[in-house]
Amino acid sequence: MRLTPWVTRLIVANFLVFVLVPGNSPLYMLLTLFPPAVLGMDNVWLVQMPFRPWTAFTYMFLHAGIGHLLFNMLGLFFFGGRLETKLGARRFLMLYFLSGVGAAAFSFLFSWQSPVVGASGAVYGILAGYAMFWPREKIYIYGVIPVQARVLALILVVVSLYSGVSGSGSGTAHFAHLGGLLVGAAYLRMLTFNQEKGKREFQRKVNQTPSSGMADGEVVRRWAAMNVSGLHEINRSEVEKLLARVNGDGLRSLSMEERQFLDRMAGFY
To answer: Please, what CATH class does the domain formed by 5-204 belong to?
Structure first.
């Protein structure tokens, strides 16, 4: 655990906003996420304005009390540093803010009439990332109960879903928590998929050989037609051995390296 640059900045920013924007102040109300107010459909939430889209972002820096703030910042401190080091600053911030916006989106869908504040959705996205990269890492609940990160993430999903549907835990944005966790996991899954896709494409190019795009029969005819008399004895012996295998077992019996060798000998390059 260590304070990385953006984890530090986010923690400082949250504490500064907590001090400078007291709860129930007009500015606090204008920065709070309240779904009807975002779309200008609110007639009672402070003042009537056309729409307040910024609250889908600003609500992440507001907190309902010092305990709420400390809980979220502890989560960011414990899980954020290692994740920022692994992902880099840009992707870490994308994960944090996309998770927060995802939490806001779930509030729109499932908690339309509930005002929401807090970085919980963003921190849940950070926890999702931690559980994905270090699933078996033990996290000690209350400092004494060991739970694997993947198990903790699953428990949080179940608890948030149950609490949101049942209505238990009034005053807690359970669907926002769930949204942050799921959107964060989806963003990281997309990153992983794109990285693996790039690796697969690179591997495909490495393994590519000129005859790969040709019909099998045409490839075999061109290999069989090569003049082996001008080849070095070692190369000639290898060509004859590989061609004999193709005749007996088929083209699919060759490895990519063997196919590349025959292509070179036949002048494909």
So the answer is: mainly alpha
